[in-house]
Task: structure prediction
Amino acid sequence: MSTIYEARAVTRSFDVAGERLDILKGVDLAVESGELLAVMGMSGSGKTTLLHILGLLDRPTSGEVLLDGVDLARAPDVRRNAVRASEIAFVFQFYYLLPEFTALENVMFPALVASGTGLIHRAPEGRAAREARARELLDRVGLSSRLRHKPDQLSGGERQRVAIARALMNRPRIVFCDEPTGNLDPKTASGVHALFRELNRDMGQTFVVVTHDIRMADAASRRVHLEDGRTVAAPSEAPT
Ligand SMILES: Nc1ncnc2c1ncn2[C@@H]1O[C@H](COP(=O)(O)OP(=O)(O)OP(=O)(O)O)[C@@H](O)[C@H]1O
Ligand SMILES: [Mg+2]
Result:
């Protein structure tokens, strides 16, 4: 395994009503190609803040965010946007599917956007190729019998499976997930945990998953904790 993505000495502070809040105080985190990394920590510890910085949705106050060793923290927006469109995908707690579109169309959507920008080289090109890949991905997440369903005709677990299939559409290097099972009942959540593990194992997909859910963390190949603004190895990995 090799490091594809890295946070070095990342800090993030917020100014609120004249008061300075230091949330991230020097995070060092290397993401290895092919791993399923769980990022845990108490509510308010800065997990979402860190995920947004890694996912180029936010910039650190100081420190570096390196893709293949090249710093993106201070890169111009146009460069960051291109990387975000072509190398990265997201899965969020509340799915954010397009309500008017079917499962199949939702999954095809990122490739359609990509073809409009010309940014993405790994995305399937042409309607037939896009649809074939979307069908294959929906089949992979167990939804081949729900292609024409719209989000409000799907269960929560099925919606999250559509969102996961959509995230994989353009063959991202890394998928960042924020509490992907936070809105699901335990049984449905465990199906989604198993799906992440399978996609990681069978496709070698790299995932960084922020989670409170100990069972999600159990499905991961590695765990780190955010504590007092820094990452520490998860207690379960520490010597007992
Ligand atoms: N834009 C912002 N302005 C001010 N404070 C912020 C901002 N974003 C986050 N914070 C603060 O940073 C801290 C960390 O927030 P963050 O959302 O990263 O926590 P989290 O670990 O994801 O928590 P949870 O598990 O509840 O989702 C919180 O105390 C929050 O109030
Ligand atoms: Mg959060």
Q: What stands out?
A: Residues 47-48 surround magnesium ion (ligand 2) (CB under 6 Å).
